[in-house]
Amino acid sequence: MLTILDYEAGNQTSVRRALDHLNIPCVITADPGLLKDAQGVIFPGVGAAGQAMAELRQKKLDVLLRDLIDQGKPLLGICVGCQILLDYSEENDTQTLGFFSGQCRRFDPRWRDEDGRNLIIPHMGWNGLRAVADCILLEDISEEAEFYFVHSYFPVPAQELVLATTFYGREFASIFGRPGLWAVQFHPEKSGRPGLRLLSNFYEYCREMSHAQ
Amino acid sequence: MLSKRIIPCLDVRDGRLTKGIKFKGNVDIGDPVDMARFYSDEGADELVFYDITASSEGRGIMLKVVEQVAAQTFIPFSVGGGIRNPEDMRAVLLAGAEKISVNSAAVRAPEIISQGAAAFGSQCIVVGMDVLAVPAGPEIPSGYEVVIHGGRTPTGMDALAWAKQVQDLGAGEICLNSIDADGTKAGYALTLTRLVSEAVSIPVIASGGAGNPEHLADALTKGLASAALVASIVHYGAYSIRELKDFLAGRGIKVRQVW
Question: Is residue B258 part of a domain?
């Protein structure tokens, strides 16, 4: 079973619907027992970094997340749930969870897109990935596949953590992390078949890990 | 590189599609949930549902439709029509839509845009604008006037000024519908689309007038639109989404081709 961390993130229900569709057992919860017993955790997120961190701290979920990661529980952060795994976000000038070294920066409207026009912010719509390292999450997904993004801030993790990049004004890390602890800037739950495939790849990894133990 | 989006628009009344949608295949032409799945499978990048139900009973039916679409279709979609306040917005978003679209309600009470953006984020808030070409004058310097109630009621507001205002209020996107072009199949209103796209820094969806793939290409290049809304051009089987995308890709326009 997967758990979706409940901290009233806007997309948690969408993530559950996608997992339901894939027949992956899941529950939206903030219960420490359930989270610790689950095979993996999805850390969703829509909204602002400051608000997300306030919510997590108020419910002491920041500490719980740290415990889960220390325990080796597989975790997938999505969108804001990806960004706040880093140390710091320019959004609301927020100290974030710091599970990975790096920060989150705002797209600059002076940057140009490939047509030479100023960037439209947010980066909203479908964009591709360029894999820079092997990543189980992308198994059996076409290199041409695109994913759905909606964000005004982008992650800048330590270089060695970058698994895939996307171009919007500049190349930014759209997937980063290490095996078992991944962050994706896009919304797999809204990215059609490739997104569903990514979620089921995560679940397969979680199952294998739990059986290996 | 960000792809240009193709967005089918589906009009719904009392939980059923209003226009008889015709296909070569055997799709249920009246069920919005089936059609959402069909277009998603065909490569639509997003969907727009426009609820023209008048009754409050019908609104409940629409929420059921939204829930079913969200449970079966895993691409973003927006819902417009009859959304008057943040409570209406919340209900639609909770039912599973990514975005809500406001049009006449925002003209009557622009604060709905800022309230929605503050509560749910700008990325959720699409402002639909119906625009009519008029003689330029002191009140309407651009020669494009905002109209409401499906084009029947003039507002005395300049379309460019309104576009900038909705952006400042926190709209995340503008869906720009030309009443002049709508239903003509003679092409999108390119001058208008370009003027609005240049006036704002949020994405603009071109709407109204698509009759062939060339029209989409024009809206996305000359018109500078981020996305093109399509209705009858796809509903009646003249072109599939894939055909439209193949054409655009052939013109060097970046579109999502693998799904």
Answer: no
pLDDT digits (tens, 9 = 90+) for B54-72: 666 677 889 999 999 999 9
How far is B40 from chain A, CA to nearest CA, in Å?
A: 8
Indicate the pTM of the whole model: 0.94
Mind listing the pLDDT tens digit for each residue in A15-44?
A: 999 999 999 999 999 999 999 999 999 999
Pairing of β A123-128 and β B99-102: unpaired
In Å, what is the CA distance from A13 to each residue of A72, A131, B69, B163, B253? 25, 29, 13, 32, 34
Domain boundaries, chain A: 2-212
- A52 three-state secondary structure: helix
Whether the pLDDT of residue B23 is over 90: the answer is no
Chain B residues with beta carbon closer than 8 angstroms to that of A200: none
Residue B54: the pLDDT is 63
What CATH number corresponds to the domain at position B173? 3.20.20.70
Assess if residue B257 is contained within a domain. no
User: Exposed, middle or buried: residue B87 (CB in 10 Å: 0-12, 13-18, 19+)?
Assistant: exposed
Report chain B's mean pLDDT, rounded to a whole number.
92
ipTM of predicted complex: 0.93
Q: Provide the residue count of chain B.
A: 259
CATH architecture of the domain A2-212 equals: 3-Layer(aba) Sandwich (3.40)
Structurally, chain B folds into a number of domains equal to: 1
Of residues B30 and A14, which shows the higher confidence score? A14
For B175, the domain range is 5-250
Q: Where do runs of H (alpha helix) occur along chain B? A: 32-42, 56-72, 86-95, 104-108, 111-120, 159-169, 190-199, 213-221, 232-235, 241-250
Give me the numbers of helices (H) and strands (E) for chain B, helices first please: 10, 11
The answer as to whether B143 is a domain residue is yes
Give the active site residue among B31, B51, B88, B130: B130
Least confident span in A29-33, B12-16, B23-27, B85-89: B23-27
Segment among A90-94, A176-180, B12-16, B211-215 with least mean pLDDT: B12-16
Interface of A with B (CB under 8 A): 10, 13-14, 17-18, 20-21, 46-48, 109, 113-114, 117-118, 120-128, 142, 144-146, 148, 150, 167-168, 189-196
* Residue in B242, B252, B200, B181 with CA at minimum distance from that of residue B221: B252
Q: Which residue has the tokens 């609820």?
A: B51
